[in-house]
Amino acid sequence: MSREGTVNGVADDRSAEELGEVDILFFQIGDSEYGTDASQVLRIDRALPDDLTVRDLGLPHRGLRALVFDTPEGEGHLKVDAVNGVRPVALAVLRRMPAAAGAAPYAVGVCLDEQSRRPVLLIDLAETLKTQGRH
After folding, report:
1. Residue 6: beta bridge partners?
2. 20 pLDDT above the threshold of 60
């Protein structure tokens, strides 16, 4: 099996319910919404001046909050403008970022936010540190 729910790129007979779901934490940086696997987030804290910002994700308007996550070197902190909630998303609707897209290593996929009906870039929080030379 090459991807969840597919065999050689063709959907198998399992229903979306059989594939399961993952909790995605949706958050804002500037005018953009992003998502991450909620299990990566240890807590949401007040942002500090030295907390991580990733230019390619956009600069926060105010960046008063930080997503705190675990890394091999300790905790990482990503400044965000808002946390929009945690919602379960069916694995069947998640899409991996194709290698041909040439996206940053932290951009792991996309999903459709059912509330806003817009695509949301899914990121790996620990990878954001590596791209900033903070690993």
Report:
1. 3, 11
2. yes
